[in-house]
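Readers of this paper often ask what the protein records in our data store actually look like. Such a record has a labelled line for the sequence and another for the backbone structure tokens. The tokens are whole numbers drawn from a learned vocabulary of local backbone shapes. We quote a single record here, exactly as it is kept in our systems:
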Amino acid sequence: MVAALEAVDRLRSAGFTPARPVDEPVTGAGSAPPDRRWFAGHALLPDGPAAGVLLVARDGRFTEVRTGAEAGDAHRLPGVVLPGLVNAHSHAFHRTLRGRTHAGSGDFWTWRDGMYAIAAQLDPDSYLALARAAYAEMALAGVTCVGEFHYLHHAPGGARYTEPNAMAAALTEAAADAGLRLTLLDTCYLAGGLGPGGAAPVEGVQRRFSDGCADAWADRVADLADLPYRRVGVAAHSVRAVPREALRTVAEVAGGRPLHVHLSEQPAENDACLAAHGLTPTGLLAVEGLLGTATTAVHATHLTGPDVDALGGAGVTVCLCPTTERDLADGIGPARALAEAGARLALGSDQHAVVDPFEEARGLEAHERLASGRRGRFTPTELLAALTNHTCLGWPDAGRLAVGARADLVAVRTDSVRTAGADPAQVLFAATASDVDTVVVDGREVVRGGRHRLGEVAALLTAAIEPLWQAAR
């Protein structure tokens, strides 16, 4: 825990800078790299695919994006270059569950028991190690910004750490070390469930998630500030974990910042909300003022027609997490209907059963094909827009290869056994995370030649995960 508490002091006193890239010396906190020049044989620009693209960046932003160019002295990138990808929904500590929850049958609720067992073990130091490795894995897959839906706030039993935001500091330092921008979605979690009589008290490991009341949660969040590479947003965990009277407080604390919420992930949640309030979860959020253009509804799987219209009409973002939704047998959400109703889409890896943005994008399309019996429900351009929706995390200046935008890019090889012969414009339907060669975040190389600047990420993951399961036995 000492390391995480020291990190808080460093962040407050010196400002926040990402860890040193592999290709540049330490030049002091807040310093920016000199001009960077890359050449892409193919790139996906805002107005479509282009060939022979020169990209120049200074102070972390693109200053020139020129097509039909020659490489000159620019660094040649392999394959096709995409804008930086976003993981709009992450629970970093869930990465421990991969390959650990498949011994028997069950559903979301039985899976949750394993998640609670891990949540009981973590402290700021072990969380830092785990999140650093999990975020590095995301960077290897082409992610340049992550939205962390953060509710593991307190010590076992619910007592506050000496520094109340020590766990948030651990996540912030982890993202810096891994080279990602972070949107910390500090999550209000106050109830252990929802029944006909209302909210149930938290119990067991849930006490680590709860601040006791909405005002105490708001006071703690008030101590978190935006930093150059971190945005602070808020979240209501769900209508089953946030009592109705606290929802409006969450909306007020958000104040236009990103506001995320798990929504209608399970039919049981809908049934409980209808029994307690006479409203669907979407209807309850609408009445309490939580729906708007800064809102992201995560999952939104089991919706009524009026729910779809309400979300689309409010201009919310809906974050689909296809690999998690099928891993937990949650169901297939009405993504196409939501988009047609006016909702914007984003993608997330949620519990990290898979960390592969390309697979999430294909999952979005494939689930629609299974539900509708038709192909081509989302075009490659629409899928790329969902993969690069940085706006839902409070970074509207990222997610495109354009002058003035943040200098993020992802080079995807087109000569692997998976991508050989693919049209660069349709690479999302062929590539996997293993095809990512280079990742640049704010002008700094984080991944080169498929290798993260931290070294062997698999070893980092093993070192972070194994002790937690040993303690959980």
Remarks:
- Residues 1-5, 7-31 have pLDDT under 50 and may be disordered.
- The CA atoms of residues 204 and 396 lie 39 Å apart.
- The chain has two domains: 2-83+405-458, 85-393.
- The two ends are 22 Å apart (CA to CA).
